[in-house]
Each structure stands twice: as structure tokens, then as C-alpha cells.
Write a structure and sequence with these properties.
Strand content: 15-25%
Number of domains: 1
Distance between the termini: 44 Å
CATH topology: TIM Barrel
Largest sheet: 8 strands, parallel, barrel
Helix content: 40-55%
CATH superfamily: Divalent-metal-dependent TIM barrel enzymes
Radius of gyration: 18 Å
CATH class: Alpha Beta
Number of strands: 8
CATH architecture: Alpha-Beta Barrel
Structural class: alpha/beta
């Protein structure tokens, strides 16, 4: 199933560097909050790269029809610059397996936009919070072995009877030492706005302010925020862009409403975002035809709205 690509051939076939106009490169790591606010990070320097999440192929990964090496080879055909390595379907966490994935990605000219674990930090029991912290540290080590610089984590669903304030406190209590550990390996933790305690931007921003680490960010999924009477989903996306360290892209909100993709990309451009816009496909169409269509949209928008310094 393997297709032989050199890095040069990949870039030529994908048109990644030429299309985006900034060359192939990994996004810079998170700076002191908000991200990208320092000198040399002007709005005119937005740099956005098309990526793809392994989760997009969950139908095949769950069934065993596809492996993580297959995922890497498949997204090369779809012109993805980066791979978001959802760890649910890793065959192993042994060094040989992880280093094999790292070498295969290098051989195909694919940088890892990051790894994604399912660790959820909203735990009422202190012992369980310590367990989640240990789990995150394990996945930080895996991310380091892969040669990636970003790990997605979750806040999580609130336990019955718990308040948002309690959930936020538990997340901060866990994420702060997790970022301290990750920072020693120059790995940034991105908490995803995905259900539960992080479904509103205000909570995500409070977590960023209280964790107060250059290695803390938001894995910004553009489709999960719940609109309020005073703040639309788009307004919440915009408020989190300064802290975005990785972005997940679908073209429909959770309620099925189409996303104005052009509007979203304009906001990321105006916010000076530098990083991956990774397809997380969950459409009704089959992945093998649906993902390329979403990737085409992402690639075109990255080309349209990425800029270089004047």
C-alpha cells in the first residue's frame, strides 16, 4: 500500500510551499499569552497550513482496515501538509513503533502538527486528577518520541452535580503542572473546546489566564462553541484565536449549520495565526471522497489568507 514519495516530489505534487507562499515549516511554539503577541508576529504574517486529523479516518482505523502508517501515506495523496496523530489507534507506545512512524512521516515529507490524546481533566476525585496528570505526562513523552511539539487534551464533561466553576478549578489544577512537565520537552498542550466545561470561549480563556504558561494553548475546534444571547459562535472563535496552538476544521457546526469558512479564515488571518488548519472530517459522505473535498477547501483558504511580512 506504500507509495514512494521523496520530500521534493511531495512538495511539487502538493504545491504546498508555493500555494501557501511561505514555504514548508512548522508553526512556532506558543509564546507568552496571548500567543503570537510578541515582536515580529504582526497580523500581516499569518501562516496557515492544511493538515488532517487521523480521527477523520476513524471508520477505517477502528475496524483495522487502515493503520497509522496507512493514514500518513493516504494524506500525502490528499495534499495535506501536516498530520495530527490521534493516539487512539496507535499499535503501541514502544519506542520502535513511534520512531517508525516518525521516520515514515519524514520519508514522505509530512511534519506532525501534533498528537491528540483523550485525557479529560474534569475529575471530582483528587486521586483521579492525579491519574489524569500521569496519563498526560505519558502522552507528552510519546509526543516527544514522535518528534512533535503539540499535544491535544480535553477539559471533559462535568460530573453530575458539579458546577462550571468547580470543573474549571479541576482543569487548572491539572493543566498547570502538566504544562510545566511538557514545557521541559518544549511541547505545548492545547485544550480543545469540545463539550463539557470548555464549550464556551469564556471558560477556555479563563483556563489560559489561570494556567499562565507559554506551553498552554487552545486546540481550537471551530464547530463546538455554543452560541449565547450575547456571543455568537464566530465571536467565540475570534476571542480564542490569540491562544490557538492548533485548529480543527469541519464545515458544519454541531447543529448542522454550515460554517462560513471564508469568514473564519479572515479572522485567523487578522489574528496573525501561525499554524495548522487540520481537517477533522465527520460528514455523511464516505471519508475517502469526503475528506479530499474538505482538504481542497482548506488548502484554497490557506493559500488565500496566508501572508508574509511586508
Amino acid at each position: 500500500m506504500k507509495d514512494k514519495f521523496t520530500r521534493r516530489n511531495f512538495l511539487q505534487s502538493a504545491g504546498a510551499a508555493a500555494s501557501i507562499g511561505v514555504g514548508l515549516g512548522l508553526p512556532s511554539q506558543a509564546q507568552a499569552a496571548p500567543r503570537g503577541s510578541g515582536p515580529g508576529n504582526a497580523k500581516s504574517m499569518a501562516r496557515m497550513f492544511p493538515g488532517c486529523c487521523a480521527y477523520s479516518f476513524r471508520k477505517y482505523l477502528k475496524s483495522g482496515q487502515m493503520t497509522m502508517p496507512d493514514f500518513i501515506r493516504e494524506i500525502v495523496k490528499m495534499r495535506s501538509v501536516g498530520a495530527d496523530m490521534t493516539v487512539y489507534w496507535f499499535k503501541s507506545t514502544e519506542p520502535a513503533y513511534l520512531e517508525g512512524l516518525r521516520h515514515l512521516a519524514f520519508d514522505n515529507g509530512v511534519p506532525f502538527s501534533g498528537a491528540a490524546c483523550g485525557s479529560s481533566m474534569v475529575q471530582a476525585d483528587a486521586a483521579k486528577r492525579r491519574q489524569v496528570l500521569a496519563d498526560i505526562k505519558k502522552w507528552v513523552d510519546v509526543t516527544d518520541r514522535l518528534g512533535a511539539s503539540h499535544l491535544r487534551v480535553f477539559g471533559g464533561e462535568l460530573p453530575s452535580g458539579a458546577t462550571v466553576k468547580q470543573g474549571t478549578d479541576w482543569v487548572v489544577e491539572t493543566m498547570k503542572p502538566a504544562c510545566d512537565y511538557a514545557g521541559k520537552k518544549s511541547i505545548t498542550l492545547g485544550i480543545e473546546d469540545h463539550g463539557g466545561v470548555t464549550q464556551r470561549a469564556g471558560v477556555c480563556l479563563e483556563i489560559m489566564h489561570r494556567v499562565d504558561s507559554p506551553y498552554a494553548g487552545i486546540n481550537l475546534d471551530i464547530t463546538h462553541f455554543i452560541p449565547t444571547a450575547t456571543e455568537s459562535a464566530y465571536a467565540q472563535i475570534k476571542s480564542c484565536i490569540p491562544y490557538a496552538t492548533h485548529t480543527h476544521i469541519r464545515d458544519h457546526f454541531d447543529d448542522g449549520t454550515p460554517v462560513d469558512m471564508d469568514r473564519v479564515w479572515q479572522m485567523f488571518r487578522d489574528g496573525g495565526y501561525k499554524g495548522f488548519m487540520s481537517a477533522e472530517y465527520e460528514g455523511k459522505e464516505g471519508p475517502m471522497t469526503g475528506i479530499p473535498k474538505l482538504m481542497d477547501k482548506i488548502e484554497a483558504l490557506c493559500r488565500k489568507y496566508s501572508t508574509v511580512s511586508a
